[in-house]
Every structure is written in structure tokens, then in C-alpha cells.
């Protein structure tokens, strides 16, 4: 077996080499002397192969390969575990700072960090951010329940027992749970589903009667239901403008934001501790949802090479079209904009944190120790 | 009629697209890659796909699809080599194949078993594609009919297979399955995140044990150690008896079994959320239940190979349905495949089936074609590769230790993987020694997570229904006709199992010795279950404690009943089965622990020096001292082994386990 296998593997290697040669363009540009020619860049994400982060990483990987000086091979590696904290803990210990190791995080990595989860042994401020990808989220209802809303006023929904599939109380879903609770709705999460896609299936099967999806999944899978009259959008979480105000989501300009619905619903207040906490976690979870990092000790020239490459990708004429289904119509931020978004995404003030921790324990019996 | 009008042209378009020389070349390339990756246990479709994904972007869609589909299609085919020849479950798809495939190899009928397995795979793959062609257009409402209670019922159907695989003493089977279920709850609970038999101070335990490691530990390590103690070839007679043609005749004689098991594969594969890991067990259980003469199962019955192998390739086809029409991956490799399709510019989901039907059919029929090419190649190779079973096993074993250690390391890329493999391997050895059903244990482990998740979800949703639409609404939900019929099937399966399971996978007169060893082992298991039960009791979040409490209580009662029976029974009773007291193991020239010690030696060295240096020392020592071969051969074999590891890891871009040495020195790859 050994010999024949070796031969086959050798064939695989030859195939790889040939394909590498095909995809590499002939020359490397000068980027402050940085060139990754002949190198392999590991793009590590702390998630498994299924799920949104894998899609996001696999979207950027081949583009980075084309845009980085020297056209390195960029491969996505998966280090799932403990809700993405084990992969992030691993990255914290890495010393590979020659630009051949990059790390992609998501809201699921940020939330445990923000909530002071005991598993967190990583420190965002030790890393250098090179890209921030934002996204949005849309909540939707079955057709027959959507009629209970009086315009933007959600008071009519307060007498219905809602149920939905949720990945966990401390995950990104807490933004949805908190929003619905603030509207005075009685929504029971069924915890323990594997991904948001399973939650959508529960909705389609009629087992759940409310749900939310991130923008790309909404466009891809919920829009057909909306067109078929089976689902009606309720609200988006909104987007942030340059001053940090919540405005309508550019991907869904016709759907009201939670802020508008909250404003119109007497039970809900757009000020006070609950609102502040919601805004803080929404900001951490959506407009700065996915980020690419280099280790903190990486040379500035390498960071700049990445920033240039990413700018080049974003400026591609076909970028919008390619990104539409995977990323949605959201800003892909680099440089100073990425820095600003990074700060928004990795900081919440203590009162918001306290509020959420108490609320998690009171509503779901979930503690973080 | 309208369906036919859409499907017909799309189908012929698809066939035209597939049968282009370039497309066929990519398909064959995918098949070759898939076969090469698939023969290594622990590496499956995900590893193979990750290998080609960097090149998919920018390829022409049909070529890219052909490459990826070719790769996915044959992984459940090629992993059969490890299952049949070496008793190593290559992936979750071929665990059940080990039960009869490996005994056939020991009888010297490896080529027969392999070719029967491949022709079954081929048939299952094609049947899957035919069913899909029609089904994909109408599947949506049928799939949506599978609500969570129905999925829970299918999970229970899977668990009911424990009844027929429990072995000589049913209670022991129940304890084994319960133990598997309990091991499956270790780590962070899915619903509330409570810790069960784990601690934040041991991060490795938070995610529980991976199926690959448990499969290798429970099946592969005990078998390798047992064989190594004999110091002869896998094939007892030392040569190959029946050849590959015989295997094809065997399949033909069991063609209806193959049809039925393929149908099971498609059906279970189609339901999103169930995952493929139950399919081969359900198919195996069904094969045993529906056979008249059950005496040879577990000892080398060819039907035990035909059944599960027919189902596992059909399952891949079935798994495509939810992947394509809902955009929800049925397995890890399907998830990567989805990512790949997105790179080609298509977006799986309702739109794709409606508007890109030709592409959809291209995927389906590339799958069928890849099955033909892959299984055909494997059949041609099976006589040659089967000769492995005639080589002195002592020369094969060190490389198997090497490969399973590397495979286990792929699950979490930490030294903990190797420790877990060793620990579970010891448990597997003891389960084998004292005749606790290892299949029952594995079924329990495989289904633990989903049994708990579905049970919790059904409970919650049913409660909400009760509040919103009363008793009737709740009963409509949990007792739909679909659920009731699956439950009825489960009841029949348990009934048949209890009635007829005694002689499957069990020794009629197992060797027994003193009472002491079996009692100590069972007592240790009992203590573990009691501790786990206490641990579950202290959990605050209700949703996370109900399942381990229930399962733990049943297991504990079973174990205590067994202990009680042991008090009363004479020491020659089958309860005290101890394979060290007689039979093949009892008379082996080498000791059990000394043999396992070699594997521990490899792991210990890895912890000190990292895997590659450890491997070099291990291979040299083993081949010189244990295998007693000359220096020249030793050096050649050691070099070949290390080269194989380097090429494999280099191609796939994998790291090796690092040891203490690497803590202090920064070494270049592959020593990192």
C-alpha cells in the first residue's frame, strides 16, 4: 500500500505544482520590498468548514492570492472549538509575524471577549487589524403574524408565544433576543441548533414562528420565501453611519430598523441601560462582524502590503458583483476605517456589559463562570 | 408532465456538459485525489476538498464541479480499504463495514470482501443518482415534513440497532451503549454551555471527543494490538483465498439487499440535520435483522459488507439534496463543497434548482460517473492491495500506529488528541477483552449529541405548542403519522434484536477465568458512570442536565444489575468472558500491555521531541528490536515511512504534533 499510495500522492503534488504555476502571474510588484513569492499564507479561522465565516474566508483567500505581492498560495485553515475561543487562544500564542499567518474572527469570537468569558485567553489589542467586514441582520415573521403589527408598532405581537431556533444565549443571537424582549415580545429560544441555517429550516417547517438571518443568508434563502408569501420582514438591526448613528441598512433600504420599531412601540425605549446595551452589542456583532488580523509584532511594511492588497481587491470593478451573495452590500474597511470599526467592535462600556450579564442570568439562567 | 418537460432537456444538457474530454479529465483527477486522500483513516472529503479549493476560483464551472464532485464521491469508496484490510474505520461512513470486512480479511478473503464492497458502493452511488434526478424536483415538501420529532425518531431507530448488536449478554450491550452516550456528553453542552465532566482548566475537554478518535480508539487500536501479538500476517492462512470475481458474484447474490440498503442510504442522507453517521449502522442492523442465518455476522459474513457499503455511497447522493435545494450542508465535506460552488459563481438554494437545473444535474450525474470510475479502479486494484494481508503484520503495524496517530492529530491539532486516542484505545482494548459490544458503544457515542439536542428541542417546542394550541396541537406535532411509523419501525427493530441478537457478534462459549478481572473492569465503569451522574446532578441549567441524568441513571442501573448477576453466577458463566483466558488472545506469544506499550512509546516520544523525530526513533527501535529485521531494511522502511508522512502533511499543509523540545527551540517544518 505504501508504495502505490506514495505514487498517487506524488501525482497530487505534481498537480498542485502545475496549478500553482498556472494561477501565479509572472512577476511580483515591489511593495516596500515585501514579496510573498513562492510562500504559502495560512488564513486561519477559529470555525469549522460549515458556516458563514468559512464562506467569508474562502471568498477572500483566492482574491488575496492574486492581490498580494508575489502571488502566494493562500489556504484557509480551520481551528474550530469552544465557540471559536480555542482557535483565538491558539492565535494569541503564535509568533509567526512574517505575514504568512493571518487570522479571521467573527462576532462569536468578540462576544465571549466582551462578556469576560472564562475561556478567553486572547487579547484583541495585541493584534493588528487589516480588514473589517460588516454585515446586517433581518428579523422576519410568518405572513399571518406580521399582520398583527400596527405599522411600526409591535405592541400587537405581545400576546403571541414566539419560539425560534437559537445557537446559544451568549452568541450573536443575543442581539435578536434582547431586541425582541425590549419590544415586550415573549420569544422563547430553542437553544442548541448548529447554525442559523437550521433555524431557518425550523421556520420553514413551521416549528419556529420568528427568526433572523444575517444579510447574505436572508438574500439567498429568505427572499424566496418572502416572494412566495410565506415570510414577511419585520425589521433590520440597521447600520451605522459615519457619526455612529443607527440608520437604515443600505442592503435593505425599504425595511425599517429596530430603532424605528422600538421608537413606535410604547413598551420599548430608545434610551436607558437596555438600549445602550443593545447598541453596544449590535455594534460589536454586526458592523464590525468579521475581521482579519496579523500578529501584533508584524512589521509595518507587511501590514501595509496587506492593506494595499485588500484595497486593490475592494477596488476591483467586479468586486460588488462577486461580493453580493457572500458579503452583501456593506463596507469592507481597511486602514483607518478598519481601526475605527475595530475599536467599536471590541469595546463595550462596563454598564452595558453588566446589564447583559445580569439579563442573561435572569432570562436564561446562563452564567459565565 | 410539466416536470418531465423541464427535467428532460436539463438532463441531456447536463450529460453533454459532463462528457467533454476536459470535464472528464478533471473528474478523473478528482477521483484520483479522492482515492489517495480517502485511503488514509481520519482524512476524508474535507481534507481533499481543502486541497483543491485554492484552485477552484476562476475555473470553468463544469470543470470545477467535476473536480470537486469526483473527489467527494469516492471518499466513502476508498476508505473501505482501511476498514476491510486493517480493521480501521477509515471514516464515519465505513465503521460498520469493519465488523464483517475485517474478519473476512483474517480468513484470507480480503480481495473478495473488497470487491464486494466496491461493487456495492458503485451500485449504491448510481441508484442514488437515479433517485435524485427525479427526487430533487419534488423533494422540498417531503424534506420539510421531517420535523424535529421525526428526526428524534430516526435517531432512536439508530439507537435501537444496539439491540441486535449487543452481543451474548444484552445487559452488557446496554451498559456499553449507555457508556458511549455518556462519553458523548463530555464537554460543553450544546444548549446552555454547561460543563459536563470537563473543566476550563483542561481546554481540550471543552469540545468533547471527536468521532475520529473514538472510532480509531475503539476499533483500530484493539485490533492492531491483538494482531501484533500474534506475529503473523492478517490473513490466518497467509494467502488470499477467494479473489475479486467471487466478491462480485457475492454482490449479485445479494442484489436485493443492496437495493434496500441503498434506499436506506438515500432516505437518511436526504434529511438535513441527521448527518451521515447513522446510515451505515442502520443499514448494518437492517442487514442482520433481515437475514435468516445470523450465525456468521461479526465473524465474516459477506452480507455485512454489502449492506453498509451499498448505503454509504447512496447517502452521499442523498446528502446532496438538502445541500443543493436548501443551501444547508448535510456534512462537513458538503459545507466545503458549498463554499466551492460559491467560488464558481453559483449559489445553492431554491434558485439554483429552479434556474440552473442543468448545473444541478451536472452535479448529480458527475457523482454517479465518479462512482463508476472510482469503484471500478478500486475493484481492479483490490487483488493487489489485498496482498497487504499476507505480509507479516509486525512489519505493517508500526506504520499503522504512525498513520492513526497522524489521523487522530488532525481532529484538534493538539497533543491532547494523542492522549485521548491512547486513553480511548485502552478502553477499547478492555471492552474487547471482556466482550462488551464495541458497536453498541460506538452507536451510543455517535448518536449522543443529536439525541440530546433533538430531545431538548422537541420538549421545548411541544411545550410551546401546548400553550398556544392545547393538547391537540401538541399531539399533532409530536405524534404525527410519520413519527408514529418510524417509532413502530423502532419497536420492531428492538423486538427482533432482543429475540435474535444473542448470537450476533458474540461468542457462544467465551473463554472465562477468575471472576476478579471482569468484576474490577465493570466496577470501574460503574464508578465512572456514578461520578458522571453526580456531575450532571450539580449542573444548574436544566436543559443541560436532563439527558446525562436520564442516560446515566439507566446505565448505572444496568451496571449494578450486572454486578449483582456476577455475584450469583459461577465463574464459568459467559458474564465473565475474558479473552485473555483462552482463545487466540490467551495463547498469543506477546503480552497485551507490552504490545500496547510500543504505541505508548511513540506517543511519549512525540510529547518530548515532536512527532517526526519521535517517529524516526520509534520506527528504528520497533523494526530492530521487535520485528528483528536487518539494519538495511530497517533504514529503508523508516525512511519510507517518514517520507510518506512528510509528503502527506506537506501536500495537505498539515502540522505535526509538537513536543517539549519545540517549547524551547524554534525548529523549521517538519520538526515544528
Question: How would you characterize this protein structure?
Answer:
The complex is a heterodimer of chains A (369) and B (672). Chain A is α/β, with parallel strands linked by helices and 369 residues long. The radius of gyration of chain A is 22 Å and the shape is globular. Chain A has two domains: 154 residues, Bordetella uptake gene, domain 1 (D-Maltodextrin-Binding Protein, domain 2, 3-Layer(aba) Sandwich), CATH 3.40.190; 149 residues, 3-Layer(aba) Sandwich (D-Maltodextrin-Binding Protein, domain 2). Chain A contains 14 helices and 13 strands. The N terminus of chain A is likely disordered. In chain A, the strands form four sheets. A six-stranded mixed β-sheet of chain A has the order 2-1-3-12-4-13, with helices on both faces. A three-stranded antiparallel β-sheet of chain A has the order 8-5-9. A two-stranded parallel ribbon of chain A has the order 6-7. Chain B folds into three domains: 488 residues, no CATH class; 79 residues; 73 residues, no CATH class. In chain B, α3 runs antiparallel to α4, α4 packs antiparallel against α13 and α5 runs antiparallel to α13. Chain B is globular. At the A-B interface, α1, α2, β2, β6 and β7 of A face α2, α3, α14, α16 and α19 of B.
Q: End-to-end span of chain A in angstroms?
A: 51 Å
Overall, the morphology of chain A is globular
> What would you say the CATH architecture of the largest domain in chain A is?
3-Layer(aba) Sandwich
Number of domains of chain A: 2
Ends apart, CA distance between termini of chain B: 62 Å
Radius of gyration of chain B: 25 Å
- Percentage of helical residues of chain B? over 70%
User: What is the H level of CATH, i.e. the homologous superfamily of the largest domain in chain A?
Assistant: Bordetella uptake gene, domain 1
| Beta-strand share of residues of chain B | under 5%
Largest interface in this structure:
A-B, 75 and 81 residues
Radius of gyration of chain A: 22 Å
Low-confidence stretches of chain A: 1-30
Q: Which structural class is indicated by helix and strand composition of chain A?
A: alpha/beta
Number of strands of chain B: 2
Q: For the largest beta sheet of chain B, what order do the strands appear in spatially?
A: 1-2
Number of separate domains of chain B? 3
H and E order of chain B: HHHHHHHHEEHHHHHHHHHHHHHHHHHHH
Read across the widest sheet of chain A, the strand sequence of neighbours is 2-1-3-12-4-13
Amino acid at each position: 500500500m505504501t508504495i502505490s499510495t506514495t505514487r498517487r500522492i506524488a501525482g497530487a503534488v505534481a498537480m498542485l505544482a502545475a496549478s500553482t504555476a498556472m494561477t501565479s502571474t509572472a512577476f511580483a510588484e515591489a511593495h516596500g520590498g515585501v514579496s510573498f513569492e513562492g510562500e504559502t499564507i495560512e488564513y486561519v479561522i477559529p470555525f469549522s468548514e460549515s458556516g458563514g465565516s468559512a464562506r467569508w474566508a474562502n471568498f477572500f483567500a483566492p482574491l488575496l492570492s492574486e492581490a498580494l505581492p508575489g502571488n502566494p498560495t493562500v489556504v484557509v485553515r480551520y481551528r474550530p472549538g469552544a465557540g471559536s475561543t480555542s482557535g483565538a487562544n491558539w492565535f494569541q500564542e503564535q509568533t509567526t509575524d512574517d505575514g504568512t499567518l493571518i487570522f479571521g474572527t467573527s462576532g462569536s469570537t468578540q462576544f465571549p471577549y466582551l462578556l469576560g468569558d472564562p475561556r478567553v485567553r486572547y487579547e484583541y489589542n495585541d493584534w493588528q487589524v487589516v480588514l473589517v467586514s460588516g454585515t446586517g441582520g433581518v428579523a422576519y415573521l410568518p405572513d399571518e403574524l406580521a399582520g398583527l403589527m400596527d405599522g411600526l408598532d409591535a405592541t400587537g405581537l405581545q400576546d403571541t408565544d414566539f419560539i425560534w431556533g437559537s445557537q446559544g444565549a451568549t452568541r450573536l443571537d443575543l442581539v435578536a433576543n434582547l431586541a425582541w424582549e425590549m419590544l415586550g415580545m415573549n420569544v422563547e429560544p430553542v437553544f442548541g441548533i448548529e447554525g442559523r441555517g437550521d433555524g431557518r429550516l425550523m421556520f420553514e417547517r413551521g416549528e419556529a414562528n420568528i427568526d433572523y438571518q444575517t444579510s447574505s443568508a436572508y438574500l439567498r434563502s429568505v427572499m424566496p420565501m418572502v416572494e412566495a408569501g410565506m415570510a414577511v420582514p419585520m425589521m433590520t438591526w440597521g447600520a451605522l453611519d459615519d457619526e455612529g448613528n443607527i440608520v437604515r441598512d443600505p442592503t435593505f433600504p425599504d425595511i425599517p430598523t429596530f430603532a424605528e420599531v422600538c421608537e413606535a412601540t410604547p413598551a420599548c425605549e430608545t434610551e436607558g441601560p437596555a438600549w445602550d446595551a443593545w447598541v453596544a452589542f449590535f455594534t460589536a456583532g454586526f458592523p464590525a462582524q468579521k475581521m482579519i488580523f496579523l500578529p501584533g509584532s508584524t512589521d509595518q511594511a507587511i501590514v501595509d502590503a496587506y492593506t494595499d492588497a485588500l484595497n486593490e481587491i475592494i477596488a476591483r470593478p467586479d468586486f460588488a458583483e462577486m461580493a453580493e451573495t457572500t458579503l452583501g452590500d456593506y463596507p469592507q474597511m481597511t486602514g483607518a476605517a478598519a481601526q475605527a470599526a475595530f475599536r467599536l467592535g471590541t469595546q463595550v462600556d462596563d454598564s452595558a456589559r453588566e446589564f447583559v450579564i445580569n439579563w442573561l442570568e435572569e432570562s436564561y439562567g446562563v452564567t459565565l463562570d | 408532465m410539466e416536470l418531465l418537460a423541464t427535467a428532460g432537456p436539463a438532463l441531456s444538457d447536463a450529460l453533454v456538459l459532463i462528457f467533454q474530454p476536459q470535464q472528464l479529465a478533471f473528474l478523473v483527477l478528482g477521483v484520483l485525489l479522492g482515492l489517495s486522500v480517502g485511503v488514509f483513516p481520519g482524512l476524508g472529503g474535507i481534507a481533499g476538498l481543502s486541497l483543491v479549493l485554492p484552485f477552484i476560483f476562476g475555473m470553468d464551472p463544469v470543470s470545477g464541479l467535476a473536480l470537486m464532485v469526483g473527489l467527494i464521491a469516492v471518499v466513502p469508496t476508498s476508505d473501505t480499504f482501511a476498514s476491510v484490510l486493517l480493521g480501521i474505520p477509515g471514516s464515519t461512513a465505513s465503521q460498520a463495514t469493519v465488523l464483517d470486512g475485517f474478519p473476512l480479511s483474517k480468513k484470507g478473503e480480503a480481495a473478495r470482501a473488497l470487491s464486494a464492497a466496491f461493487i456495492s458502493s458503485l451500485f449504491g452511488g448510481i441508484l442514488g443518482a437515479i433517485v435524485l434526478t427525479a427526487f430533487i424536483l419534488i423533494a422540498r415538501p417531503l424534506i420539510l415534513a421531517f420535523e424535529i420529532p421525526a428526526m428524534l425518531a430516526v435517531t432512536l431507530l439508530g439507537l435501537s440497532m444496539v439491540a441486535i448488536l449487543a452481543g451474548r449478554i444484552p445487559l452488557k450491550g446496554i451498559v456499553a451503549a449507555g457508556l458511549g452516550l455518556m462519553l458523548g456528553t463530555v464537554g460543553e453542552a450544546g444548549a446552555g454551555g454547561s460543563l459536563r465532566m470537563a473543566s476550563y482548566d483542561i481546554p481540550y475537554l471543552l469540545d468533547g471527543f471527536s468521532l475520529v478518535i473514538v472510532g480509531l480508539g475503539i476499533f483500530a487500536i484493539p485490533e492492531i494490538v491483538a494482531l501484533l501479538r500474534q506475529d503473523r500476517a492478517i490473513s490466518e492462512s497467509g494467502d488470499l483465498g477467494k479473489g475479486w470475481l467471487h466478491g462480485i458474484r457475492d454482490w449479485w447474490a445479494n442484489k436485493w439487499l443492496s437495493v434496500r440498503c441503498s434506499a436506506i442510504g438515500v432516505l437518511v442522507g436526504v434529511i438535513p440535520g441527521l448527518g451521515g453517521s447513522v446510515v451505515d449502522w442502520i443499514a448494518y442492523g437492517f442487514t442482520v435483522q433481515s437475514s435468516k442465518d445470523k450465525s456468521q455476522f461479526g465473524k465474516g459474513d459477506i452480507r455485512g459488507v454489502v449492506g453498509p457499503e451499498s448505503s454509504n455511497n447512496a447517502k452521499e447522493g442523498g446528502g446532496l439534496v438538502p445541500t443543493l435545494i436548501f443551501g444547508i450542508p448535510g456534512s462537513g465535506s458538503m459545507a466545503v463543497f458549498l463554499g466551492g460552488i460559491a467560488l464558481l459563481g453559483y449559489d445553492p438554494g431554491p434558485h439554483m434548482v429552479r434556474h440552473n437545473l442543468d448545473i444541478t444535474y451536472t452535479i448529480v450525474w458527475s457523482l454517479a460517473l465518479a462512482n463508476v470510475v472510482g469503484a471500478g479502479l478500486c475493484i481492479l486494484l483490490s487483488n493487489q492491495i489485498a496482498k497487504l494481508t499476507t505480509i507479516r503484520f509486525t512489519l505493517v503495524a508500526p506504520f499503522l500506529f504512525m498513520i492513526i496517530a497522524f489521523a487522530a492529530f488532525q481532529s484538534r491539532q493538539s497533543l491532547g488528541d494523542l492522549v485521548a486516542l491512547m486513553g480511548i484505545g485502552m478502553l477499547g482494548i478492555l471492552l474487547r477483552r471482556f466482550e462488551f459490544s464495541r458497536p453498541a458503544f460506538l452507536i451510543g457515542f455517535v448518536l449522543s449529541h443529536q439525541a440530546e439536542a433533538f430531545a431538548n428541542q422537541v420538549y421545548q417546542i411541544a411545550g410551546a405548542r401546548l400553550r398556544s394550541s392545547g393538547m391537540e396541537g401538541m399531539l399533532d406535532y409530536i405524534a404525527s403519522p410519520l413519527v408514529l411509523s418510524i417509532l413502530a419501525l423502532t419497536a420492531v427493530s428492538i423486538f427482533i434484536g432482543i429475540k435474535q441478537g444473542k448470537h450476533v457478534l458474540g461468542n457462544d462459549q467465551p473463554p472465562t477465568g477468575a471472576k476478579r478481572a471482569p468484576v474490577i473492569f465493570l466496577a470501574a465503569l460503574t464508578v465512572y458512570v456514578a461520578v458522571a451522574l453526580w456531575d450532571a446532578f450539580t449542573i444548574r441549567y436544566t436543559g443541560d442536565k436532563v439527558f446525562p441524568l436520564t442516560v446515566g441513571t439507566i446505565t448505572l442501573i444496568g451496571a449494578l444489575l450486572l454486578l449483582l448477576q456476577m455475584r450469583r453466577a459461577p465463574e464459568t458463566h459467559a458474564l465473565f468472558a475474558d479473552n485473555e483466558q483462552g482463545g487466540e488472545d490467551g495463547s498469543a506469544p506477546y503480552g497485551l500491555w507490552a504490545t500496547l506499550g510500543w504505541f505508548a512509546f511513540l506517543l511519549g516520544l512525540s510529547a518530548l521531541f515532536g512527532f517526526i523525530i519521535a517517529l524516526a526513533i520509534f520506527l528504528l527501535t520497533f523494526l530492530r528490536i521487535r520485528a528483528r529485521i536487518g539494519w538495511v531494511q530497517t533504514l529503508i522502511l523508516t525512511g519510507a515511512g517518514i517520507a510518506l508522512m512528510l509528503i502527506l502533511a506537506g501536500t495537505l499543509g498539515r502540522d505535526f504534533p509538537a513536543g517539549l523540545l519545540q517549547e524551547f527551540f524554534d525548529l523549521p517544518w517538519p520538526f515544528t
